[in-house]
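Inputs:
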Amino acid sequence: MNHGRLRFVTGFLAVPVALYLIYVIAPYAQAFYIALTDWRGVTASPAFVGLENFRRLFADDVFWTAVGHNLLLLILMPLLTVGIALFFAFLLNAGGRGGAAGVWGSKFYRVVFFFPQVLAVAVVAVLFQQVFRPDRSGMLNAPLIALGFEPVGFLSDTGVALWSILGVLVWQAVGFYVVLFSAGIASIPRDLFEAAAIDGAGGAQLFFRITLPLLWDTIQVGWVYLGIAALDVFAVVWVMTAEHGGPDHSTTVMAAEIYRTAFQYFKFGYASAMGVVLFFFTIGFAALALRLSRRERIEF
Amino acid sequence: MASIVLRNVDKIYAGGVKAVNSINLEIKDGEFMVLVGPSGCGKSTALRMIAGLEDISGGEIIIGDRVVNHLPPKDRDIAMVFQNYALYPHMTVEENLAFGLKLRKMPKAEISKRVNEAAKMLGLEQYLKRKPAALSGGQRQRVAMGRAIVREPQAFLMDEPLSNLDAKLRVSMRASLNTLHERLGVTTVYVTHDQVEAMTLGDRVCVLRDGLLQQVDTPQNLFDNPVNLFVAGFMGSPSMNFVNAELVRGDGGASVAFAGFNLPVPQETFTEKPGLDQYIGKKLILGIRPSDFDDAVIANGHAGGWARLPVRAEVTEELGSEINVLFLIDAPPVQHQDTVAAADAGDDEEAALPLVGDKSLWTARVNSRSHVRPGQNIELVVDTHNLHFFDPTSGLAVGHPANARV
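Outputs:
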């Protein structure tokens, strides 16, 4: 590149990079700094305490319970969401006759599956609060009561609450990934499905031998996004559960603890320290996921 | 190996569009049948119905001795070669070839044997461990054929497999296909829009148009005795020349008059084409193949009985071994739906060039020794034993046995 060109490119990049540095990178740096202080939002110049916050964090049981919950969601949410979304996307695109068309009504299903994504998270949380009600008005408990069973405390039973959270998260996320995977499957040339059908592949074989390998790149991307979303869960927990973190800390997550520590207890320094830990978890996860699933690009 | 019979097969799409209209076709066991026709004539649809990739709206398809209308593709014991090869991109060549066999739970030893045999037959041994993306077009095509061969099916179905290859490769692959067919003897149905492929590959060729079967015959018969204007104009390149003419009987015998020319029609023609005498004094459409012309000077020793035609060469196309001489004759171009459709399926506008005006542009194929140049006057000779006559309204060939009852 000659000098003129270099200056031209730098000139154009200067503003976006500056904006990015000021509004994205700088807050990260600030958070790292605040994590090393004991700032309670009152003093103008907080006192430096070094790694004291992190030492306390290490011994904080509630925080580590939250981390445990996040890890559980991290493992299960992408798995369930991708699994169900793949299954639906396959049915909608290649589950019909000859392996080249969708089941009857695909267009309708495609729209309906996407509805949960359209709702705001808080709305979903409130909705499911009602769905999970432990009396005759609760959508899930009403049939149980009618059949003579004891109602299940979806949000009040410490053993069940986290699974309810998982259920809501998956419910909302599936629709988007159905659309994403549908697009991926649509980009697979139709000939391939026809050739496989002629070769003798039935529905399951078509899915595992053709669709899945060819969708791998898209699935990888989806997996990373869902993993990061699992680490960042907040709204559903905060709005839907009792005590903002479930009966007796059974549904708390890192983001909820950060919010509580910062905006209810006003311990900004300590909350920032939690934020730093979350940051490293997320980066670590993304790096790991991309490294493990790296493969040659497939060309059609 | 098996015969394939299509009986009154229809394909109707939503909206009433008949892509395939009551086709009756019998493909003999071990035959190489080519389905040829312009775009949209229903040949690919017919092939896909045989394969089971499209539903059959009416009629029956029988493979071997079974009616297969409701059988899914995998139960019909057929193998298909696609235009875009449809190779599995995430599998190696070896896995591509073995896929169908693995799905049918064949023992590993047998799979290995078949794959290696096919690879040897097609020259693919050194590519077995590669993925399709690392192969050239011709190699991919061979893998696609290999995938069909290892299955040892009752019939091969090929959907324009050579269309995506360059010209030279196409010629060599045609030869390979011929050898393969000699060697394996499997019933093959081959779809193409290229009539040269049709002529060189087919035992018999089926010409389709707008979903209707026009003619099924050996390539030579299609060329020599087309049943209607469409087949006459479609087969052969450059295509047959047409003109509106009048058949007259004078003292010296019958002749056909057009554009100021008068070509004598030999008596044998009236015997060969029964019903031609009914057109005496009437108008009909005359067809002359470019290859039935020659340069009078070159043909001097062999032109006994050939009529002479002095013309002015407007354009010459020098092909090395021969020259296409394009000349104008003073008659308006033939406006029949069959000729327009055969000539150019692309435009909806006039098929004639704007500069030509109200004249027809004819093509003659002469020996390159003629050295004729554009703008030169040249005397052509015509083999009047090979004149073709068509009814001006129906477009049917006069005297063709298939049109006898019309």
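Remarks. The mean pLDDT of chain B is 88. Residues 209 and 240 of chain B are 18 Å apart (CA to CA).
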